[in-house]
Amino acid sequence: MFQVSRMLIFILKFGVPGVQQPVSAAKSFNQYQLPVKKSEIKFSITLDDQNVPGQIHWEATDNPNEGIEEAKAISIAVWDHFHKGTMKIDLWTKDMPVDEMKRFVIETIGGLGETLLGATGDAKMAGDIDTLCSDLTRHVEEEMRRQQK
């Protein structure tokens, strides 16, 4: 019964795939909406006198670890549907090591590839991103080997 009810709610809310529903059906469903879970992510940035981040802390309602967490860098991208563009916020602390920053960027790019594949199914683009990350990782590893000599 639970699955049938959820399917009925899905059909009422989104319609039958491939069949255009009248606007009134979508509007009348709003009175039957189920409770929606709400999650929050908060960032706290401590800046020095030149507005350079000294500390970055974050907390999230769904964080499996309790309490406020410290980070050395954050990268946030928000899609603005109205303007059809991305707002991006990249912050890192003044004591973020360069090698860790490079790793952070490579892992962020790789994560975007995984997101792209899951959201769009575009294996070609995701594969190209994965190849780029592999190339960048080799570059960083070679760079580290040269520095150790």
Radius of gyration in whole Å, from Cα? Answer: 22 Å
> Low-confidence runs (pLDDT<50, min 5 residues)?
1-26
N-to-C span:
68 Å
Structural class: alpha+beta
Strands side by side in the biggest sheet: 1-2-3
Strand content: 15-25%
How many distinct beta strands? 5
Q: Count of DSSP helices?
A: 4
* SSE string, helices as H and strands as E: HHEEEEEHH
Helicity level, as a percent range?
40-55%
* The number of domains: 3
Average pLDDT over all residues: 83
User: What would the principal axes of the Cα set say about the shape?
Assistant: globular
Largest sheet: 3 strands, antiparallel
Tell me what you see in this structure.
The protein is an alpha+beta fold and 149 residues long. It has three domains: 2-32, no CATH class; 37-94, no CATH class; 97-149. It contains four helices and five strands. The chain has helices spanning 2-14, 23-29, 98-120, 123-148, and strands spanning 41-47, 53-60, 69-71, 73-80, 85-92. The strands form two sheets. The protein has a three-stranded antiparallel β-sheet with strand order 1-2-3, with no helix packed on it. It has a two-stranded antiparallel sheet with strand order 4-5. A hairpin with a 4-residue loop joins strand 4 (73-80) and strand 5. The radius of gyration is 22 Å and the shape is globular. The protein starts with a helix and ends with a helix. Mean pLDDT is 83; it is low at 1-26.
